[in-house]
Amino acid sequence: MKFPNRYSVLQKNLFQKSKYKIVPIRYEDRLEIMKWRNAQLYHLRQEKPLTEADQNTYFENVVCKLFNQSNPVQLLFSFLEKDSCIGYGGLVHINWRDKNAEISFIVDPSLEKNYFEKHWGTFLSLLENVAFDELGLHKIYTYAFDLRPHLYKAVEKAGYIKEGELKEHFLYKGKYKSVVIHSKWNQS
Fold it and tell me: Going by CATH, does the domain composed of 15-141+149-159 fall within 3.90.980.10?
């Protein structure tokens, strides 16, 4: 199977800042992404660990179809340092009518301790080019389970404003936790 490498909805499919770049999600990164997701289940909306079969099916039957859609519900990218994938994410739950989308991003867990804020800042900067410059979206936002307060520092440093909190919105280890939403608006 030849996996696509260009989103038809975008004029540009490579976004770069020094040695970092985002490119349309690469099929070759799917198994690393699966490992990262499985290692970070606690803060994802993922019920159970993924298997290789799950991941292959998702890429072949869901992700592959996004590349040629005029209004895809999500645009996913591999986040590269030079040419090595160190994370992935994108715009999800895209609302084309109201011109907004949720931000999704995870990085290789081995990089979180020392580079979390740096990688979030770089990824957000690149993704804003996609969202605001390429797609003309009005607003992008994070929807984060209140389990990683260090995330708020990273997104606020990147210019995102805490817009709201959904109190006791999800159950985590027998206790209700909140969801925190940070947003940024298109300034052009």
Answer: no
